[in-house]
Specification:
Radius of gyration: 17 Å
Shape: globular
Mean pLDDT: 83
């Protein structure tokens, strides 16, 4: 399902734990990491698609999360031609498809880590996951998605700001700068654990 400009409607999911760290998933059989995301099917609202993708990719049900906010409008990215050639043999499809337009949701996990199940569907998206600081290092994101990730996190940060304007932090700020954001909490986020959860 493409719009008139060649973009496929899609949802992105930023899932927070109690320390405002975000879920970071490793693609099956790859060395790339990303947020959960997926296409909106015909007849679905963005929220319905978000809940479906959340269960298919992360194994969580609506009762495991709370919606904190969402982006106001679509955020778009173009898929480079070389990726399209690898994924689609049909020249007709390549000519019409440009990329994704996404609504991003910010969720709070109200369940526990043990509720996360990467093999909830027959076609798992991720084979490992971890919690990382909200302001992810952009160089870990595939280059053509970096701008959308920055836009999504910057817009969603307004739901979390306490005492400082997170939007004004330098991207990829050192961990100590993030501690001021968590000043009212008992525990600030630590460096990501090198042991990935599967």
């Amino acid at each position: 399902m493409l719009d008139r400009e060649g973009y496929r409607p899609n949802v992105g999911i930023v899932l927070l734990n109690g320390h405002n760290e975000v879920f970071w998933g490793k693609r099956v059989g790859q060395h790339s990491w990303q947020f959960p995301q997926g296409g909106i099917q015909h007849g679905e609202s963005p929220e319905q698609a978000m809940y479906r993708e959340l269960h298919e990719e992360v194994g969580l049900l609506p009762e495991h999360v709370q919606i904190i906010g969402r982006t106001r409008d679509w955020l778009r990215y173009d898929v480079p031609e070389e990726f399209l050639r690898r994924q689609h043999a049909s020249k007709t499809h390549r000519a019409s498809y440009r990329g994704q337009k996404q609504i991003w949701f910010l969720l709070r996990l109200v369940g526990s880590d043990s509720d996360i199940e990467l093999r909830a569907s027959d076609h798992p998206e991720f084979d490992a996951w971890r919690w990382i600081p909200f302001w992810i290092q952009l160089d870990t994101v595939v280059d053509f998605k970096r701008e959308v990730y920055q836009l999504a996190l910057s817009e969603l940060a307004r739901y979390l700001s306490r005492g400082i304007r997170m939007q004004q932090l330098a991207w990829g700020s050192p961990l100590e700068l993030l501690h001021s954001f968590y000043a009212e909490e008992d525990d600030a986020p630590q460096e990501p654990n090198p042991t990935d959860k599967t």
